[in-house]
Amino acid sequence: MKDILVKGTIEGVRVYALSTTNLVEKLNRIHKCSPLAIAALGRTVTGALLLAATMKEQECITVQIKGDGPLGTIVAEAQGNFVRGYVQHPEVMLPPKNGKLDVGGGVGQGQILVTRYLAQGEPFTGMCELVNGEIATDLTQYLYQSEQTPASVALGVLVGKDCTVQEAGGYFVQAMPDAKEEVLAQLENNVLTLPYVSELLQAGYTPEDMIKKIGAGLEVNIKESNYLGVKCRCSREKVLHTLAALQDKDLQELSQDAVTEVHCQFCNKSYKFTNTELQVLRDKKST
C-alpha cells in the first residue's frame, strides 16, 4: 500500500485517515532505530501529518514530545504532504509491556509542544502535559486543552521481528460546530469498537476503508486523497546561509579548524566546510 492521506466528512464531522508504512520505514533506515524508537517516532510523524492536513499547504507544523524517558526528545515537522523527524536516542530498547512495545515507558513524563507556522502572522506554540507518552492520547489531550478542539487521534506502528516497519498509519476525527449529538454518539461508539490502527492496516484496510468503518451507519463523503513522503529541507546552501548569520567571533572560532562539519538531525546528512569557505563568509560580512 502506498503512503496516502484521505480526507472525508461524516455528517458534520471531519475525518482524516492515512497510511504511512513506507515513510516510517524510511525514517527507520535513516536513523537506525530500535523497534521501540521507530514505534514512537512513527506515531509522532504520523500525528504531525494528520495535524498538517488541517492547515494550508504552505503552512508548517512541528510536534515535539519532550519526556524524561530514555528515548529523549522526539521531533516531527510536517508541511503539506511531507514530513521529517528524529528521535534523540534511536538505539533505546525496553522490555515489552503487556506484550506490546512500551512506548509510554520510553517517552516517560513531560510535555508535548506543537508549533504552527502560519502563512500570515507569527508562529503559535501550544503545550500541555503528556498523558501517558503513547503519543495518540497525548495529541488528543493537547488539541482539547491547548487549542480547544474536541478531537480523537488514533495512531499505530507495527514492527516485525526483523525490525522493519510492517504497518503504520492513523486517523483523526474532529467534530464541526454543526455536528448533531446523535451523530457524535454513533461515531464515538464506532471508534470505541474499532480494532487498533495497525490491525486494520494489517487486515488490508485502506485509509478510505478506515473512514468508512469509522462512519458505519452514517453518511460518509470522501473528499480527496494525497500521497505522502519524507522530505528534509536541509541543503548545503541553507547550512551555509545559517553559518553566515553567526557573529564574527563565532565564525572566527570555527575557522580555526581545517574543516567544520554540520550535521542535520532530521536526515542524518553532514555538510563539511573548509576554513577558507568560512573566511570568505567573514570577508563578505565585513564588506
Tell me what the structure shows.
The chain is of the alpha+beta class. The chain has 2 domains: 4-230, 3-Layer(bab) Sandwich (Hsp33 domain); 236-286, CBS domain Like, CATH 3.90.1280. 34% of the residues lie in helices and 31% in strands. The chain contains 10 helices and 13 strands. A 6-stranded mixed sheet has the order 7-6-3-4-5-11, covered by helices on one side. Strands 8-9-2-1-10 form a 5-stranded antiparallel sheet, with helices on both faces. Strands 12-13 form a two-stranded antiparallel sheet. A hairpin with a 6-residue loop joins strand 3 and strand 4 (74-79). Helix 1 packs across helix 2 and helix 9 (248-254) runs antiparallel to helix 10. It is globular, with a radius of gyration of 21 Å.
Layout: helices, strands, pairs:
Elements: E1 4-10, E2 13-19, H1 21-31, H2 35-52, E3 60-67, E4 74-79, E5 82-87, H3 103-107, E6 110-117, E7 124-129, H4 136-146, E8 151-159, E9 165-175, H5 181-192, H6 197-202, H7 207-214, E10 220-227, E11 229-230, H8 236-244, H9 248-254, E12 259-263, E13 270-274, H10 275-286
Parallel strand pairs: 5-11
Antiparallel strand pairs: 1-2, 1-10, 2-9, 3-4, 3-6, 4-5, 6-7, 8-9, 12-13
Helix pairs in contact: 1-2, 9-10
